[in-house]
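2024-03-11 09:14:02 INFO receiving multi-entity request
2024-03-11 09:14:02 INFO entity count = two
2024-03-11 09:14:03 INFO echoing inputs for audit
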Amino acid sequence: MQMLPIHEQMRIIAKGAAEIINPEELQRKLHDAAGKGRPLTVKLGLDPTAPDLHLGHAVVLRKIRQMQELGHRAVIILGDFTAMIGDPSGKSKTRKQLTHEETLRNAATYKEQLFRILMPERTEIRFNSEWLSGLNLAAVLELAGKTTVARILERDDFKSRFSANLTIGLHELFYPLMQSYDSVAIQADIEMGGTDQRFNILMGRDIQKHYGQESQVALFMPILEGTDGVEKMSKSLGNSIGINEDPRVMFEKIMAIPDSLIIRYFELCTDLHPDEVDLYRERLDNGENPRDIKACLAHEIVRLYHGRQAADAAREYFNTVYRDREPPKDMVDLDVSPFTDDQGNTDLVRILVKSGFAPSSSEARRLILQGGVRLNAEKVNQFRIPVRDGDILQAGRKHFTRLCKPDRTC
Amino acid sequence: MQMLPIHEQMRIIAKGAAEIINPEELQRKLHDAAGKGRPLTVKLGLDPTAPDLHLGHAVVLRKIRQMQELGHRAVIILGDFTAMIGDPSGKSKTRKQLTHEETLRNAATYKEQLFRILMPERTEIRFNSEWLSGLNLAAVLELAGKTTVARILERDDFKSRFSANLTIGLHELFYPLMQSYDSVAIQADIEMGGTDQRFNILMGRDIQKHYGQESQVALFMPILEGTDGVEKMSKSLGNSIGINEDPRVMFEKIMAIPDSLIIRYFELCTDLHPDEVDLYRERLDNGENPRDIKACLAHEIVRLYHGRQAADAAREYFNTVYRDREPPKDMVDLDVSPFTDDQGNTDLVRILVKSGFAPSSSEARRLILQGGVRLNAEKVNQFRIPVRDGDILQAGRKHFTRLCKPDRTC
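2024-03-11 09:21:47 INFO inference complete, emitting structure
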């Protein structure tokens, strides 16, 4: 295996990391790996219940990709075991129990998404049920005996719940241990995670030692804020940008982030060299319109996941519809004849529903009454009106369709 | 099955019990049992590491015996599972790990001792490894999910250790759960124990309910103080009276308990009717020598485990040696010729070791120098002295041997 010099590898791995515990161990592991021509095993654990990867996941995944390019191999662990058993106390409504089939289906989706970032030939995907479901009580007690109640209750969420007298099921104390045991099972050299995984990943270091293994290095990446600019990016909070999303939607979502996040997104979500990021920072400092810099950011990120062509198209669409408030060039045509009566009045309500711009007739009516519907850029305030061939119907900011008259060919 | 009326059974079961949780449930269970002609299952868990049963265990076992006589059946659970896995944290030096063979050997000893009190035909002995060793992680988490961290940490010893910042291994939290799961496995109707088992047995009630079973009734017996009159009777504290001990030793140990315990021992260790115990209480109150009442107690208890003849003999031996300070009638003869030199001096040190009165020569010398050795009731202060045929050598209070001269037939 041809590898870069250790100090070069260190520089690449450390770039953008929030914390490494600890750099000396990482250096030694890289050295050993180079000496033995053996790639390091980089572990990432993922919850198989939510197979929609977003830019927050990508912060970690792209760091793994960099390590793969250095010659190392990734082991992605899908935590199917806990997903399959659900919540044993039956108290948590949020943890849905998954069947084995659902897990496998999710895994397939994951794979497809992961390989938009990771190198398939240097990635192994494992299910932790492989080793966890076989553990018997004696082995479980052995594992549990390697830590203490006080230590486990130090974890932030346990600590706060415990001191607030909120219920903690005894089984919950096991989750950090299971994650740690995953590291033992695959003999992880490095475990990746957001800084919110600090407790679990550091516990993995201890547990590996107890099982006679060298402790993994903990490599923490910063937590990416979602489009709201406040909360951690998360699908359930509705502030996420999926890596599989339509290029136009992705572009639009990025354009909606607060200006204060522009540089952070450049740093965490693009491959730009720090010097290039500095240039954007300067342009912002010099008073350039943040919207223009954000468009560069959006283009850069969309390009990363969808290629240059899609990125260009998404930018053009955005500029036309949102910046210049003009109809996009690729509108769908809609034949209004089935919705037009003998007096020549067209039923806009039904058209809005038909074209998917409103989920129901009542919503369509509400949209019209609120002034959210335009015909050729003029607000409409009636449900039925005469239209001409080629009229453009607009609902909200971004939904457009071109209307065709029944007596003409569309 | 012919059974006594419920209220009669209730009276017998409740007699001497420290607490029943709860009597209404017990009554209902007895009623159901009578209706279905199905005996109740009475559970007792024992630690297989210490197979020397003493009067403290007997308090509980004799209560079980009474229930067997009412037609119910006992299931004795030997906790071999935890004994076989030892202490997974490796921190406790005191919990010895037992092999399967040792466990089986201990179990055989247990059986022999248990059947001095219990009815073999209504007793089943089970090892909890039978159901615990087969539990896998999913089942363990299910079990753990049925309780909370706060609940488990309410147990007295955990509570005090936790608040004193003493280490509690995470695996230890499982022990009450495993004991509870034993109740599920055998579908216990009643669990017996000392009042110090309160937490574990009440948890068993909860856990059974979680597994869809009716909760067991908890039947707590008082804790018997040992011969020191202070601590709970326990072999490791050296204050116990084993049910298998030699009748003389048993008699002697009972004679050594503090007077304040006489009535309590009558109540907890004999089968005497409460009215008879009241008579002894009156005699004590009337100023009769407690020593004489204690002799009745000792005779009663020895009779229970060794029969009337052995009890009579033990009393006679005690009276002769301890009360009248005379040599017992059944002394062993010892030929002193191998220990006597040409000058006719006998080596007392070697004789004391030979007869087992002193563990070593230095101990024998110490005993002599401290005035603990007598020849025909006279203190000896030399290591070598001339002896005559028929001389009686006494070491301490209770060791006697008759010395024979070499030129005579013993």
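2024-03-11 09:21:48 INFO post-check: The interface with chain B takes residues 81, 84-85, 87-90, 132-150, 152-153, 158, 162, 165, 167-174, 177-178 of chain A (CB under 8 Å).
2024-03-11 09:21:48 INFO post-check: Chain A has a mean pLDDT of 89.
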